[in-house]
Design goal:
Blueprint (H helix, E strand, L loop, with lengths): L6 H27 L1 H16 L8 H24 L5 H9 L4 H34 L7 H14 L12 H21 L6 H23 L5 H12 L2 H36 L3
C-alpha cells in the first residue's frame, strides 16, 4: 500500500481531500477572494463619510491589494490545510487513511499548485471584473491588467536587437516552488508553521547580504569597475542577443530544480513521518 499507486483509489482520495480542504479552508479562501468587494466598499464608504465624494480604488491600489492577498494565500494555505499532519492525534488519522504515500502526495501537490490557485484567481478576478463593469471609475479590470502585463513581459524590448523573452512556464513554476516551500514547512515543523519558513528566508537573505558585504570589504570585487563593466555589456547588442536568452534558460532550469527539490522533500517527509 505505501509504495503502490492505484488510479481508482487515487480518484477517491483526491475527491476526499478536495472536500476536506473546501470544508476547512473554503470560507477563508472565499473571504480572501472577496477582497475586491471589501476594498471597493470600504474606500467608497470612507470617501463618502469624510470627503463627501464617491471615490473608488484605482488600478494601482487593486493590483497592490491582489499581490498582498495572493502572498497571504501562499503563506497560510499549506499550514491551514495540511499542517495537522504533524499533530499526533490528527496526523495518526491521516496516516491510517487507506491510500498510498504517492497518492496522498499527488493529491496534495495538485491541490496546492493547481486547484487552489486557479479557484482563488478565478473568483478574485471575476469579482474584480464585475465591479469594474458596474463602476467604470475603477479603471480597467485586473484581468485586463494581467493580460496586458503578460503581453508586456513577453514582448518587452531590452534593446532593439535583444528582446527579453520571459517564459510563462518559468513564472508559474517559480510561484509553485514558493508554495511547495511553505508546504514543506507546514509538514516539517510542529509549531510556528508559517513563522519558521519566513525566518529561514530572512536568514538566508541576511547570510548572502553579509557574505556579499565581506567580499566587497575585502576588495575582491571593485564596485566601480564592476559597474562600468556591466554598463558596457548592457549596451552591447551582440552580448545581449545571446546572454538574455541564456539567462532565461538558466533561470527556468533553476526554477525547475528548486521545484523538484521541494517536491521530493515533501514526498519523503510524507513517507517518513511517524507519530
Amino acid at each position: 500500500m505505501n509504495n503502490t499507486f492505484s488510479f481508482n483509489r487515487f480518484g477517491k482520495y483526491f475527491r476526499y481531500d478536495l472536500k476536506r480542504w473546501v470544508a476547512s479552508f473554503g470560507p477563508t479562501m472565499l473571504l480572501m477572494s472577496a477582497v475586491p468587494v471589501i476594498l471597493y466598499t470600504f474606500i467608497a464608504i470612507y470617501s463618502l463619510l469624510f470627503s463627501g465624494q464617491w471615490d473608488t480604488p484605482g488600478e494601482t491600489t487593486r493590483i497592490v491589494a491582489s499581490v498582498i492577498t495572493t502572498a497571504v494565500m501562499v503563506l497560510i494555505y499549506p499550514a491551514s490545510v495540511y499542517g495537522y499532519i504533524t499533530d499526533k492525534k490528527a496526523g495518526s488519522s491521516f496516516l491510517m487513511i487507506p491510500a498510498s504515500v504517492p497518492e496522498k502526495f499527488l493529491s496534495m501537490l495538485l491541490n496546492t499548485i493547481f486547484v487552489v490557485p486557479l479557484t482563488f484567481g478565478l473568483i478574485y478576478l471575476s469579482l474584480d471584473g464585475i465591479i469594474c463593469a458596474i463602476d467604470g471609475s475603477c479603471g480597467g479590470s485586473l484581468f485586463k491588467c494581467v493580460r496586458d502585463g503578460v503581453n508586456t513581459i513577453l514582448t518587452f524590448p531590452f534593446s532593439s536587437d535583444a528582446p527579453v523573452s520571459v517564459s510563462l512556464f518559468s513564472m508559474w513554476i517559480h510561484s509553485a516552488g514558493s508554495a511547495l516551500f511553505f508546504l514543506l514547512g507546514a509538514l516539517f515543523f510542529k509549531k510556528h508553521k508559517i513563522l519558521y519558513p519566513l525566518l529561514i528566508i530572512v536568514g538566508l537573505q541576511m547570510f548572502f547580504s553579509i557574505l556579499f558585504g565581506i567580499v566587497i570589504s575585502l576588495g575582491l570585487i571593485d564596485i566601480d569597475s564592476f559597474g562600468l563593466w556591466t554598463g558596457r555589456l548592457a549596451t552591447n547588442p551582440d552580448f545581449l542577443s545571446w546572454a538574455i536568452p541564456a539567462f532565461n534558460i538558466l533561470a527556468t532550469l533553476w526554477d525547475i530544480l528548486v521545484f523538484a527539490a521541494f517536491a521530493t522533500a515533501v514526498y519523503f517527509r510524507l513517507k517518513t513521518i511517524k507519530h
